[in-house]
Amino acid sequence: MVSLTANKLQHFHMKAESRPYLDAMHAVLTHAGWTTLSKPMLAGMTVNGFRMAVHRRLTAESTTAYNWHAEHFLAADFIGVMCSSKAEFTFKRTFPLYRKQAIGDIRSSIDRGIAAICWHNGQFVAIVGYEDVEDGSGSGGTGNDSVRLFYADGWSDEVKPFNDRDFGVGEDRENPSPYWYYQIFEGCIPMDEAAVMKESFLQAIFKWETHDGTLPEKDYACGAAVYDAILQALRSGDYDQAGASETFRCMAVAKRDIAAYMSEAERRWPAAVEAAAHYYRVAELFTGIEAAAINQVDELCGLFQEAKQAETQAIEALRQLVRETVDNRFHDVGLR
Amino acid sequence: MSSVYLHHIRMKRESKSFVDSMYAILTAAGLFEGPKYRLSGLSGMAFKFTVHERLLPLSVTAYGQWGLEHGPAVDNLGLLTIWDGGRTRHLTFEHYQKDAVNWIKASLDRGLGVIHWIPEFGIIHGYDDDDGVFFLQDGWSQEDHIVLYDNLGLNFTPFWYVQMFGEKVAVPLEEQVLESARLAIHDWHTPFKTLPNKDIASGKLAYEFFIGALKSGDFDEGGGRYILDSYRYARQEIRDYLSEMQTLWPEIAEAYKYYAELSGLIADISFEHSGGVSAMKDKLAAAAQLEDRAIQQFSKLSVRYADPSRTIETRWNTHSSR
């Protein structure tokens, strides 16, 4: 096969809207022509919008603290998209081997016309192009000196370059990322949208009940436990104000997505009316949370208290909606 | 249309089926030199010990989610590795199966065999496009198994699993041994590796499950024999591995003594031996204590060195199957 020395995808649009992973995934799948779904629909069907986790000090990291490898594979799998992905620490001895593999995989993906997702400079970005560079740095994966990758981060339409040396670690020399992560998309199969939506309700119940095994429980809370963790942090005063604002904004966007998603569910299945109503209430409360000043602890606590109640009721309503399948899955509601 | 048949790969069942597979593939490719116990030790695989509450034979391979167990094992050898697997009932399986057929063939073209869940683990060591088949070894039979490309991954269990190896970087022996001790510590102190299921225990708790099943009398005897054989073989591997590495640190030398004593203690336990099940329970209880002391030595060693891989939380690793 002839290997190109440069390739850049055209007409790629990504918009960062506080959905850390989904903004990138939506852009890649839309560009590939594999989905015409809106972000809220994708948030629901991929289960991403149902997932919650916070660091107990409400740091900004909360918005991306979860099992990327598992959750992003599943996000694709639920909607019938095939992918390959890998994540590890950048300080591992095997990292150069995997970097080379990753760059090769990403190039091949771009040559197939599909952008890739990777972790870069503290966010999920879309890689939309590459170019071989002869600069003598010697870390390239194709016999050339190095490879320049072009990425979209959603903050502007401008596509920015980075050298493959910065894959994973990022461009901030002072604060290299300990993580590298990439995901390429390999194809898609037609799915029954109604079945995907029903599965997402089961997975929503699972995410509500289950702690993410990659996060130590003393430092993080997941699912239902997130609300108490937030209340405790706010009451104790021991929390990161900027991080909390960012975390609440992302949560609010996710809740609005799910509200929109549930309105589609309600349109399809009148029986979903109750679950949808509770999620509308959750989204409304989060709009209040977003609008409140981050140091207005009493006001925030009141809103979170109510949101906790509303979302608990929403999950109960979902459970009723899919009760036979919940029962069939016994103690493991997440196992398809 | 092409074909490849890697004659020099010869798998032999002795250790865990994954170790036997890996050993045959890596030694044939010149990616590992030395005895099998060293591979089993350095990869941390020897320390994996899981027991089903009824001693079902699946205990021996149910030591966690395979990718997440085998990944760190292979990483400690300095090798790149890629795996795929999951539930064959999932709609995307067909795509991943076809994709795997391609990358398995590419690996064989490079002279590297591929690990495959038969079950248990075996090796794909050849393919023939004319017939659309892979040639497989299970380590027991001299005869190959034949698997059609279209049937790859389909077996009586609900899951499929394939794993290949890539290039290698040098890792200093001290680092490998330290990491293997840390993998052992983790397995020893992680009670359940296949959550949310709690019917299979790992490490320290695995001993309790073993003894508990013997006490209750409600167990699968064939499974019990298999677990016992595998467990005993692994303890000998650990003993030999630590014996070789004991000059590196005093803690390894100490741990070696415990494992040497343990190996002697369990050398003759069996379901047939005089004393039978009752003697077995007592010896297993004593063995658990010896192993616990050995792991304490590993912990003592581990805390002396920084461990960034376990200090920073990961964005991958443990999760339940979905």
Q: Overview of this structure, please?
A:
The complex is a heterodimer of chains A (336) and B (322). By secondary structure, chain A is of the alpha+beta class. In chain A, 46% of the residues lie in helices and 16% in strands. Chain A is globular, with a radius of gyration of 21 Å. The mean pLDDT of chain A is 95. Chain B folds into two domains: 3-33 and 79-168, Cysteine proteinases (Cathepsin B, Chain A, Alpha-Beta Complex), CATH 3.90.70; 173-309, no CATH class. Chain B is built from ten helices and nine strands. Chain B has helices spanning 17-28, 36-42, 66-75, 93-109, 173-189, 204-216, 221-245, 250-266, 276-302, 308-311; strands at residues 3-5, 50-52, 79-87, 114-117, 121-128, 133-137, 145-148, 159-168, 200-202. In chain B, strands 1, 3, 4, 5, 6, 7 and 8 form a seven-stranded antiparallel beta sheet that branches. A two-stranded antiparallel ribbon of chain B has the order 2-9. Chain B is globular, with a radius of gyration of 20 Å. Classes of the chains: A alpha+beta (336), B alpha+beta (322). The A-B interface holds A 64-70, 74, 77, 80, 82, 86-89, 91-94, 96-98, 100-101, 178-179, 181, 186-187, 189, 191, 203, 206, 210, 212-216, 219, 331-332, 334-336 and B 75, 78-80, 82, 87, 89-92, 94-96, 99, 166-171, 175, 195-197, 308-309, 312-322.
